[in-house]
User: Fold Alpha-1,4 glucan phosphorylase from Luteimicrobium subarcticum.
Amino acid sequence: MGRVTDTHAAPTPSSFAEEFLDELHFELGVSRETASPTDLYVALARAVRRHLVEGWFDTLSTQLGGDSKFVAYLSAEYLLGRQLENALLATGLTEVARDALDGLGLSLDELSEQEVEPGLGNGGLGRLAACFIDSLATMDVPAVGYGIRYEYGIFRQTFVDGRQVEQADDWLALGSPWEIPHPEMAVTVGFGGHTEEPAGTGEGTADGAPGPDARQWVPGWTVEAVPYNYLVPGYGTRNVNTLRLWSARATKAFNLEIFNSGDYEAAVRGQTYAENISKVLYPEDSTPQGKELRLQQQYFFVAASLADTIARALGDGDLHALPDRVVFQLNDTHPVIAIPEMMRLLVDVHGLGWDEAWDLTRRSFNYTCHTLLPEALEIWSVDLLGRLLPRHLEIIYRINEEFLASLRDSGGNELQVRRMSIIQEQPERAVRMAYLATVGSTKVNGVAALHSQLLRDAVLHDFSDLWPEKFTNVTNGITPRRFVRLANPGLSALLDETVGTGWVKDLDQLRGLEAHAEDPEFRRGFRDVKAANKQRLVDLLATRDGLHLPTDALYDVMVKRLHEYKRQMLKVLHVVTLYDQVRSGALDPADVTPRVVVFGAKAAPGYRMAKDIIALVNAVAATIDADPALAGRLQIAFPANYNVTLAEKLIPAADLSEQISLAGKEASGTGNMKFALNGALTIGTLDGANVEIRDLVGDDNFFLFGMTEPEAEALGQAGYDPGSFYEQDPALKSAIDLIASGAFSHGDPTAFESIVSDLLWKDRFMVLADYRAYLDAQSRVEAAYADPDAWTRSAILNVARSGFFSSDRSIRDYLDRIWHAPAVPARSNGLRD
Ligand code: GPW
Assistant:
């Protein structure tokens, strides 16, 4: 199904070819003969973009004309992936473009490969935001995604001697055909300075006399936030939403002043300082470092977005209508400074009284928490916050004072008051952003059923006792457009034939596959698709990474950020055990199920243990490769620089999806959903959304292992001793000893010492405790894989029963439980009529 188009003539290959050449000649200024592959790609992208603009205008005029409510999604990350194929899908122009290019002796697939993906996110949280804006557009919901246009996205990963080395991701180097800058719409954002009593008249507020609670913030310096619009096309609809990313620029006044004083170096320094704000994405996933520049980034995009939102939602209208016109969703705590910023705007700038402003603010904001790890909960030192945002700190203090007073009023004891304070006192005074978000929001949600339960029972339990109705769950989802329709054309064609094409917008229709799970012909077709996807992956990894892989093997895939809680180490111990058993003669290589273990993972650059684990994976891979006994039986493939583009090729080829975090640590996971929808079976713990996946696909079609969350919690309480597991399990002992012996490091026993000693003495995520259960589950995997018919049946049922994990369903849940913003289909405004 394509775009719902207008009355005027649909593009043909020849009209499209003309538009493409127009772009190439007149916009890029190069001839067909001299054009580089990048030029050709850029011209193609811009020719496609033309076909989104009309729907975008219609969407804007429909939404701005009425009195609809819109969703302002605030996220520091959007991990978009490549844009071209998605835009072609949305416009229904894929075949037209292919034919047009063919006619010019060019190949659509080759040009598509030129695109550098915008990696403006770290992992799951950023990719979730990208899936959500896709679903919002597809469902005609008025929505704007707000974020930061990082000049450098997530670093490019390379391996040198098996160790990760980071390179800058200069994704804008060759131009970005998808963005539309609006320098004339720049918003000024202040930082630093001091606060004072507002001047008696006028100065304090936009509307006249200062309000009773107003203070005046006199910033010490300012920067400009320049908006860049990205078009977000819905699928099978006219609607095209907006993603608005802000880029930092030095203010003109600032520059002029210094230039006039003749201090050119200072002027340039100032410019560099300002522009640093949107320079680079922080590469820490779930482990914020509390750096000043990061707080600058957060306030920078939030302040610009709120100014933009208020103008858009209200124009000159009544501030009291704010909660009816806009609903803000805070994607984790990164944008939570928006709460005091809204208070500042209402109280200081617009002169509202505190209570009224607080009521409006609370009714406009909602907060999604994405973690359970204490080290992932953002805190900002009072010292830093007060220096950078003095007025915001005052506002946070007052929010906290009033909140704590209300607690005391309703009989809270001092212990409880101290526990719930937005300000922590030890080890240093700091603002707990998750608490600020919870106090300042209408709804707080977790991202999977188990996660939301644990938020209520543990991380935020005092707050859930106080405000039980505030807490809700919205289980994450993924867009079927990118992760099935685009990533898996073979499966998509089979689905179209079997259940019709409606599944792309209504993923529950996949249920219709269940009836075919017993059909031998359908199973054959399904198996053929998987085999073709493996072949596609093998070809890609041969050219991309120089890997030589068999297609006739079980593809066992673990792709996600490298983090101890995700337990890549458990996977390594499994592989090392297989190797060890073959090497010692305990296992006949002929009895090893041929298996390719694929890893994809970036480590935060400062995360030592994660980087050591990457080195170990590469070392084990090399050692196994060098051993003829395992040839064709066991191999590790660790392509560097795992990203969205690679995920789209890896996931459809997988047989087995590794979701093996310690129960109670992974908030949801979204990779787990992508694999199930592409017909991989999961080996996993009862963690995050795995729980819901297993409930839906059925326990016969899921390899469950490991401790439950209460069991892991109890083991921790009882005093976990990893050494005892090592002593009691000879296979485990032998595997660890092998690593410690230097077998994977050319005899150097020190190479992986820190990993080994951490496992034996600390093992915070209880890898050793779950090792035996994991190995047993892997044996069940092998037995199941030996029966191809039964395996295929399970894989089909995974696809058929995973419709729930569409991000369209997540968005429906947000709409019903939190946002209450009706869909508004764009009306044709007749740009060309
Ligand atoms: F720590 N997630 C992430 F909660 O990718 F902020 N980056 C992050 O910084 C955080 C969470 C944060 C992930 C969760 O780890 C994953 O379980 C979840 O599926 C994903 O966010 C989307 O909700």
